[in-house]
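Ticket #570: bound-state structure for zinc ion.
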Amino acid sequence: MARHLITSAIPYINGIKHLGNLVGSQLPADLFARYQRARGNEVLFLCATDEHGTPAELAAAKAGKPVAEYCAEMHEVQSRIAEGFRLSFDHFGRSSSPQNHKLTQHFAGVLAERGLIREVSETQMYSPTDGRYLPDRYIEGTCPNCGFEDARGDQCDNCTKQLDPVELINPRSVISGATDLEMRETKHLYLCQSQMKDQLESWIDTREGWPVLTTSIAKKWLNDGDGLQDRGITRDLDWGIPVKKGDEDWPGMEGKVFYVWFDAPIEYIACAQEWVDAGKGDDWARWWRTDKGAEDVTYTQFMGKDNVPFHTLSFPATILGSGEPWKLVDYIKSFNYLNYDGGQFSTSRGRGVFMDQALEILPADYWRWWLLSHAPESSDAEFTWENFQSSVNKDLADVLGNFASRVTKFCRSKFGEVVPEGGSTGEREAQLVADLTAKIREYEEHMAHAEVRKSATALRAAWVLGNEYLQDAAPWSTFKTDPETAAAQIRLALNVIRLYAVISQPFIPDASAQLLEALKTDDDSWPDDVPAALTSLPAGHAFTVPDVTFRKITDDEREDWQARFAGKRD
Ligand SMILES: [Zn+2]
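RESOLUTION: The complex was predicted; output attached.
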């Protein structure tokens, strides 16, 4: 039995994510986790909310809530939606957990002991009225480029120019509106990544079969310009993990917190500790410490391409720099972007479908199937309502749903709701079994490599084989002259439904469960031996005709949704 540690990039806390976010990490990670479990492997699948940083503080202020309370509520919301999409995390943690506080402070302490952290003095905008330093996003003023009066400290939304807060004309605090801002000296910690460039590069060179998208981004950061830069890992903020050297105070760093990008990946480890502390597991170290049993673990990370530098360089720098035997990632699966109907998803303009809205209009399986079968792997992909409608109606309703419906209804009308006995099968049936075997082996090969689209294509092809067989064998015609043979054909076809339910489970878990329930079986074992799997339901086994597994999306619905999610609502 192989052991798979699987993590999805952790979604930021400030709001509900759109379908592009979902297919960029959580959903393909869930597909892979479900598949590995279905193959009988041991899996630990972790995700969490990323809760620190300025955007969380700003979102909480906008909601009129203390930031800790806001984060706790949004964690619940994201957790419920994840359940709605059947994301099968073993634990959905929080980067603000006590476990992550302790571990982040531990890593910082060890890195400092090993001479990999240096202190840097810099100047930053300070607001005496607010009694605090202001991050760039907390400062607004007039854009020096276009004269726009509400330009942010990091960028002007009107002319898109990247800005430094000192460039703003008449800068003011977003918190209080105070204008008596001044530049003050402040001290920050930097992780000496430049010292680790060679170590990181040779580690990346040992990683086998990484996607080009992943390694090209990593190599660019390692070698472009002046090469890998040291990185600030602290901020002057209230909300976050206090800067400490292990358990000890860090002189000169009082009142500062670690930068969100330092503590967020460490949450992958802390999340396993939370999983144990929540009583769901009993040993996190055998997943994460190579001196405590994790040397045989295969660790796969899923993420959007914008997160690749942090996972190929920054987090490995933390782990390698510690000199401690932590498990490093074996395979990074990164994704391009999903666009929406001729443009981009936009949170601020309400453009596109967000996770909560998606579940309000259709069950999870419809979305899971479309998103995974169109995952933006080799290039960006685009969601269009026409494509969604056609994919759902053809693949799910006409192919898979129709097969299950025709076979069970025909059986009920001619033989009753029981697997018919008697008769024998011939060459066409042998051909079906051989074709299904070949297709399932192909599917397994793609799934093992987390090739999402190719897996979907192989699965769809397996569904099509059943329909083609039904057309050729035409048991409804056979029945008129040779009911015994028709019985054998239908017995096989009922078993094919069970086979489909088992192999489709990673993509469409609800439909899979519904079909197994209708077939009154809990045999969901993987078809390592396809011919044997196709005799799982014996003659005389009772079943019921399943309710409609997938319904079709109408043209009216499609037009209605297209208008509803076009954006500009406020
Ligand atoms: Zn401007």
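RESOLUTION NOTES: The longest helix spans residues 385-415.
TICKET STATUS: resolved
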